[in-house]
Design a protein that fits this description.
The chain is of the alpha+beta class and about 250 residues long. The chain has 3 domains: about 100 residues, Tetratricopeptide repeat domain (Serine Threonine Protein Phosphatase 5, Tetratricopeptide repeat, Alpha Horseshoe), CATH 1.25.40.10; about 70 residues; about 60 residues, Roll (SH3 type barrels), CATH 2.30.30. The chain is built from 8 helices and 7 strands. The strands form 2 sheets. Strands 6-5-4-1-7 form a 5-stranded antiparallel beta sheet. It is globular and about 75 Å long.
Length: about 250
């Protein structure tokens, strides 16, 4: 009895908290619509600071920063929105638009076309969606096995066998997609440069050799961290070290 009361209270509090969050989100949207971008930014950041997050909040926050002329913050929040909703073309479009306006134009190393194709399919859905598809196809695999073992028809048994193999392979692939998308949320490997310009060094120290200069808004991959230095890699494969304070983790 006591346990049920506690559970009921928890559900009521959760529902109340969600209503409050929704009301604050709508209020932030109204501020954005009226052009009060600074106030909208504060409102969206307050919602995120309370522990509530969604691709819509990050996306709208990115739009507010973009309208306010802060490209690094806009890019950061578009990237965070895209992590939660990789299938959303509006987020991807605005992100690419913001990237087109930064100083550094990094040439991307071309992926093998098959890897690029699989990556495109994986990004067509989020982790939860792929997990559901994986479960459904695994159930279909079990159903195929049942038909294979209990069907009296040779033709149906052959069909069930190949169907079960297809379902098992599909379940494994979609499970790997779900796992990859989940890992991208848990392990944040990428960051956005926030300093107007930063010199990338050959070693994790100020006295290291200057390699190249990056500017705000550039996306980097963090390879490792030593003291107050990140070893980073660019999309063209260039590697170097930069201060931790010059980037924000996506």
């Amino acid at each position: 009895m006591k346990r049920n009361i506690i559970l009921t209270i928890a559900l009521v509090l959760a529902a109340t908290f969600q209503v409050i969050a929704d009301e604050r989100y709508q209020a932030a949207n109204e501020l954005y619509k009226t052009g009060a971008y600074n106030e909208a930014i504060t409102a969206y950041e307050t919602i995120l600071g309370s522990g509530v997050e969604s691709p819509e909040i990050y996306y709208n926050l990115g739009n507010a920063y973009y309208r306010n002329g802060s490209l690094p913050s806009a890019i950061l929040n578009y990237e965070r929105a895209l992590l939660l909703a990789p299938q959303n073309n509006d987020i991807r479009y605005n992100l690419n638009l913001a990237y087109s306006q930064i100083t550094d134009k990094i040439e991307t190393v071309d992926q093998f076309f098959i890897a690029k194709w699989f990556s495109g399919i994986r990004n067509a859905a989020d982790s939860d969606t792929w997990a559901i598809i994986s479960i459904v196809t695994f159930v279909l695999f079990l159903a195929g096995l049942l038909f294979y073992f209990f069907s009296q028809s040779i033709g149906l048994r052959k069909l069930a066998f190949f169907f079960a193999i297809w379902a098992l392979i599909s379940s494994a692939i979609t499970f790997s997609y779900s796992h990859t998308q989940k890992q991208r949320l848990i392990i944040r490997e990428y960051a956005i440069v926030f300093s107007p310009s930063v010199t990338i060094k050959s070693a994790p120290q100020g006295g290291g050799t200057d390699l190249f200069v990056l500017h705000e808004g550039t996306k980097v991959k963090i390879l490792q961290t030593i003291d107050q230095w990140h070893e980073i890699m660019l999309q063209d494969g260039s590697v170097g070290w930069m201060p931790v304070s010059d980037v924000e983790i996506i």
